[in-house]
Amino acid sequence: HLQCCINPSILSADFVNLEAELARISNADAVHVDVMDNHFVPNLTIGLPVVQRLQKVSPVPLDVHLMISDVDRWAPQFADAGMSSVTFHVEASNAPVKLARELRARGAKAGLALRPATPVEPYLDLLSEIDMLLIMTVEPGFGGQEFLDIMLPKIRRARAAVDGSGVNVAIQVDGGITEDTILRAAEAGANVFVAGSAVYGKPSPADAIESLRANGQL
Ligand code: DX5
Ligand code: ZN
Questions:
Q1: pTM, whole model, 2 decimals?
Q2: Torsion, Cα of 53, 112, 89, 3 (10° steps)
Q3: Does residue 196 have its Cβ closer than 6 Å to ligand 1?
Q4: Number of domains composing the chain
């Protein structure tokens, strides 16, 4: 089955010990790296220089989530830094098709992210241009928020469109994924699961990853 991936978010990790924090999730499928600019979202995290260093030391591929304005200018530089995937928000790009093509040309998978209030339908014609659709299940900006169940129909519609068009596009969910919510998201059709506090908020992040896999029936 398509359902595969637990991508812990280092947003909930200890930012002064990032290399050690990566080593604690070596059983993950990828590490989710939240880049915020205090403009697209009301929070500020890390930028390109830190992400370039993370790429050098990470035991797992990097799945970068850009919550930044001016993404048409920045995203290609993250692809050049060796990211497995670069996900940008449709609300922040003036030319999402051009940008997705640029990312793929630079060897990264292209991800398109939607805030909770952004409908998926206008972007279904773009599925052949991307490798991943990120359906936010909280308002982007902070970890530890509650999963928005009202996003489940959107996940279902995205899954139907992906399956119907036969493209190989992953459906990622991000925000509020826990041992309790992961199965609902999986049953709706998501197959890549970001989890911050549900991994790094636990005494053993590695065990938490396995619990999520078990509860999501991955
Ligand atoms: C929120 C970020 C998420 C965040 C998720 O804007 O995009 O990746 O780390 O954190 P949890 O899993 O705690 O909701
Ligand atoms: Zn994220």
A1: 0.98
A2: -70
A3: yes
A4: 1
